[in-house]
Write a structure and sequence with these properties.
Blueprint: E1 14-26, E2 30-37, E3 40-47, H1 53-61, E4 67-76, E5 84-95, H2 113-118, H3 120-123, H4 127-149, E6 153-154, E7 160-161, E8 173-176, E9 179-183, H5 188-196, E10 201-209, E11 222-231, H6 235-256, H7 258-264, E12 277-279, H8 280-290, H9 303-313, E13 317-323, E14 340-348, E15 351-358, H10 363-372, H11 381-384, E16 394-400, H12 401-408
Parallel strand pairs: 3-5, 6-10, 12-13
Antiparallel strand pairs: 1-2, 1-4, 2-3, 4-5, 7-9, 8-9, 10-11, 11-16, 13-14, 14-15, 15-16
The protein binds one RNA strand of 76 nucleotides through strand 1, strand 2, strand 3, helix 2 and strand 15.
Amino acid sequence: MRIPISAVTTETTEAEVIGWIHEVRDLGGLAFYILRDRTGFLQATIVKKKAPESVLAAAKDASRESVVRITGVVKATEKAPGGREILPETFEVIAKADAPLPLDVAEKVPAEIDTRLDNRFIDARRPRVAGIFQIRSTVQNAITDLFFREGFINITTSKIVAAATEGGTELFPLAYFEKEAFLNQSPQLYKQMMMAAGFEKVFEIAPIFRAEEHNTTRHLNEATSIDVEISFADHEDVMDLLERVVVGCYTKVAEECPTAIDAMGIDFAVPNAPFPRITYAEAIDIAAISIEEDITYGDDLSTAAEKAIGDEMGEHYFITDWPTAIKPYYAMPFEDDPSVCKAFDLMHPRMELSSGAQRIHQHDLLVEQIQAKGLSPESFEFYLKPFRYGMPPHAGWGLGMERLVMTMLDLPNIREAVLFPRDRHRVTP
RNA sequence: GCCCAGGUAGUGUAGGGGCCUAUCAUGCAGCCCUGUCACGGCUGCGACACGGAUUCGAAUUCCGUCCUGGGCGCCA
């Protein structure tokens, strides 16, 4: 019976393990084969004078990164990594690895991100990289758990759409039989339609597509969006939820992934709630005193401005009370001052993580706002229709999964947070 | 879309007109080595993205092509 490497302890007497040959150190009469599976490392020690002939032959044949099965006696010893080693009685090469390897799993020599992504399957054998995706899995699980505990319905909406959701961003066009179609940039309109359907609380964790030709360490052309929408809720309610989601997933990662965090060698701290909240106007003031460029009320926050404010805040924070003019048409204006709306962004000191708002649920006001943005209500008919038949007030947000993981683990490049990133140039693997 | 920077063995690098028959590390192959943990020692293998130009001479300068990284704008 094969057991995981982490189950081989100083108490173990015999074991069968399967793993990859991580490193070989041949000292002559004595050879050490470091075996790796996803749970850890185990040293197989071969004493050449004593080992069976078949073990010697197989071991000689086993190149680095080959998959091997070893059975043998386990001995506790201070001299071995992990305090124990296996003395192979059988040694079988299950799948031999070619040499040279496309990159060095043992990380004696670094590899560039491009080389790593071209060979992601082998890059992901590195414990540090595997750790990222174990943590990402835990994050998604923590968030999903929280949504279910709070009574959300998990929905799946179409990624093939006929028109732009929000204007602004570029879309990937698609040949859809005799029609023109696009890959969806956001589930926004569909989430809102499900409010009209009376689902009250929905979430979706799914890909979004943006055809922007940017080339940065924080943009992807295919990203994963964590989206929620709640009826009878305002922007304050969903900001509270967002705070619970972020703190909740950090907490669960801290509890469940100590080994992965350790493998990554990072300082991991759960952020403290509540997150500070500053208004857009305050954010502009902070930026204005710390950066060179002219910035005034009504401008979008430039990258430099975002960074300056982030440095000042030093932790997660919300920016609230945005000018209606620079937020999407569906953001609800304040009743007493419609030039400001109930939209917010959740910021990490490094970058924006999420944006959300209470939405406009009144049909006529929505049409007005669509027109105010220079868009045509006719092309939004499928979206506007639900607003005429009993649309409850509602609010929601979208949170970028990759940015969440990237900032959580202090990754230098967002591509590190995706197994198979799609960027300006990369479509394979 | 705009603006930078860059492509040298499998990987990561040095070298910016002649000292280059191209450095170092890792890897791979062979030999030596019984407690390594970045094992060590010796020998060897393996590369200037492509095309053109300048020059007595180009990895190095220039032009073009292809590929890539990054910044900005926009966005999550």
